[in-house]
Design brief:
This protein is mainly alpha-helical. The protein has one domain (20-89): Globin-like (Orthogonal Bundle). The chain contains two helices and two strands. The chain starts with 19 loop residues before the first helix and ends in an 8-residue tail after the last helix.
Length: 97
């Protein structure tokens, strides 16, 4: 494996403001992000455990979204918010039909 320096360069979305309606959507997206992550972990043999243990494949975040600590919910929300901001910054419109 080559030793390469990785410098993340995400699109700057700091000037994109989400409407109240889209901010409500971020919570639904965050729940779904968590469920997708959980399904993947479970499919790979992970189970709930009191602390993360890679050798035992245990993770305390394998719980329903509502039971997550606020720090984990915040991570999922931020992923959702930045995804919506990216979509808008690229010139797309998000319209509920």
């Amino acid at each position: 494996m080559q030793n390469k320096t990785y410098t993340p360069q995400p699109v700057d979305t700091s000037d994109i403001q989400l409407s109240d309606e889209l901010m409500q959507l971020t919570e639904l997206m965050a729940r779904n992000v968590h469920d997708i992550w959980s399904l993947g972990r479970i499919a790979d043999g992970w189970t709930w455990g009191p602390r993360r243990d890679d050798s035992r494949k245990e993770n305390p975040c394998l719980v329903p979204y509502d039971d997550l600590p606020e720090s984990e919910k915040s991570y999922d929300r931020n992923t959702s918010i930045e995804t919506l901001r990216l979509i808008l910054s690229l010139g797309y419109k998000i319209v509920k039909i």
